[in-house]
What does this fold into?
Amino acid sequence: MLREISAGGVVVRPATTGWEVAVIEPRGEPTPGESDKKRQKKEVLALPKGLIDPGEKPAETAVREVREETGILAKVLTKLTDIKYVYVRSWGDRQRVFKIVTFYLLQYESGTIDEISPDMRIEVKQSRWIPIEDAQKKLAYRGERSVIQLAREKLKSLQEEAQA
It folds into this structure.
């Protein structure tokens, strides 16, 4: 079985109603015989993430992937967790892949969400801010929903530390 090692980020910023998190809507690959219209009906939201480049540290990958997939710059606050899962490639060889993704909590610094390069539009349909409490319901992948719960807990503890 193939192995992939990736890193990603839960980018947060304060909003009037609480915290917002940056999410992406990946383009996805059509399955054989699937039309674009059928594929576009169900919105899939995910956290920005990607493969770790040779010589790159996971935290650097998380910051880079966030910048590439959302258009925003963010700084690492802390590591949240590693999630592990197996998926079947929906393109090409349809191989099973064992994947490990290290997720970090990142704080928004600058940039405009969804201002990404034309090359990145092949991977990302759009990126946007959503309330963090909505992310736990709207993210497509269970592992990423659990990462959001960890991020919410960490934000709460960081706020309590700051007030102490």
